[in-house]
Amino acid sequence: MIDQGLIDSNIITVRQSLINRTDIGLDYAYALTDVFSADMIEKIKQEFDSNTTWDKVDLQENFSRKIIPWKPESVIEEVYMVFQDLEQEVSDTFSRQLKFQSVNFWQDSPGYTISPHIDNNRISVAMQIYINQAHYTAGTEMYKDGDLFYKLPWASNTGYILSNTDKSMHGMLTKVNTLRQHIYVIFK
Prior knowledge:
Distance between the termini: 29 Å
Number of strands: 12
Low-confidence stretches: none
Oligomer: single chain
Number of helices: 4
Strand order of the largest sheet: 1-2-10-7-12-5-4-3
Helix content: 10-25%
Largest sheet: 8 strands, antiparallel
Mean pLDDT: 93
Order of helices and strands: HEEHEEHHEEEEEEEE
């Protein structure tokens, strides 16, 4: 059953996180903190921990990453509704009109890595929100002029928003023996 009160309160929480974003010195990305309310984080964690059906992630079939398939009337739909309502705020962040596309509940197995890359052109702006508590070195690495510039520490309810440009190189070369649960939101 959809909890409209939880959705409404988290529209406010995510909006505030976008307003309070941290400039990390790159023109394509910002760090985010306190993205969701404690109630929403707990509900999302319960979804990850109780889920038994997983799919492979499109274009990442050879990675140790999997996705929870869409479930109507679930926290997945509630998070979808939160970001659907924040299209203008995300557009304002990068001063261009964007359209909300999807929300994805991803889980990476221990040992997961991904080489520095620029996202495919189906993504204009992405948000990644870390859900579980994992090793702090499991966060995303941001690059500038080919060199590691900033590493986001992994902490529950933090993450980043990134504009996909020809300079938005990011990845995770650090191998950690930890499970990563996160939400990946796409705007086009």
